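Sequence in, structure out. Go.
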Amino acid sequence: MTESTDTRPRGRLTLLLIALIFLGPLAFAAWLYYSGETLQPEGRANHGVLLEPITSLPEAVPGSAMYGLEGNLWKLVYVHTSACEDDCRNGLYTIRQIRLMLGREMDRVERVFLHGDAPLDTLYIQAEHEGLVALGETPLADFLVNRIPPDVPPNGYFLVDPLGNLVLYFPPGIDPRDMVSDIKRLLRLSRIG
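Output:
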């Protein structure tokens, strides 16, 4: 009889531990949900700037010729609305090289150059940037430039998904390998384009 009374408290403690193991995480998750607390990881996976909230370009700037381009492709967009000199030519060179660095995934990405009202050097574009889509759309160019966060340098590169959603902005001077890493990650995770 004395043995059964000695094991009773140990049995209750075991039952309490088992209940705590199963109900503890549930209680913690409920506390996080109802208190509004969030746990964000310290590091981040992307090198580009995530443009939040995600904006649908066809809704924000209706009638743009960019939406009539090759369907189901991601678009790497470079905006430069003044005369295309050295910095512009470097930007065009960068998006060409980024696309080539994507390897077998490069067919899923289209390069777009928004030059606004600035005259376009068509001979240069044809000779150096075959396959580049050049559009003189000032409203779309202005909208994109205004979406760059104030603490981030302008004259970078935008990534637009096949549905027309503005996803990432890459500031000028970013390491091209970091851009390729971000784009490849999105292409791998994407079921569109």
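Check: The helical segments are 2-35, 57-60, 86-101, 122-128, 138-146, 176-189. The chain has two domains: 1-39, 49-189.
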